Amino acid sequence: MRLLPSILLIVACALPATAQADQRTPPETTITSGPNGTTVTAPPTFAFVADEPHVTFACSVDGARPVRCASPYTTPPLPGGVHTFAVAAVDDFGHTDPTPAMATFVMLVDADHDRFPESLDCNDHAAHIYPGALEVAGNQVDENCDGVLAPFPRAAAVLTAGGDATATKTTFRSFVVTGITAGAKVELRCSGRSCPFKRRVLKVRKARASAKRFSAKPGAKVEVWVTAPRTIGKVMRLPIVRNRFPTMKTLCVEPGAKQPKRCASS
Question: Where is the signal peptide (predicted)?
Answer without folding.
Answer: 1-21
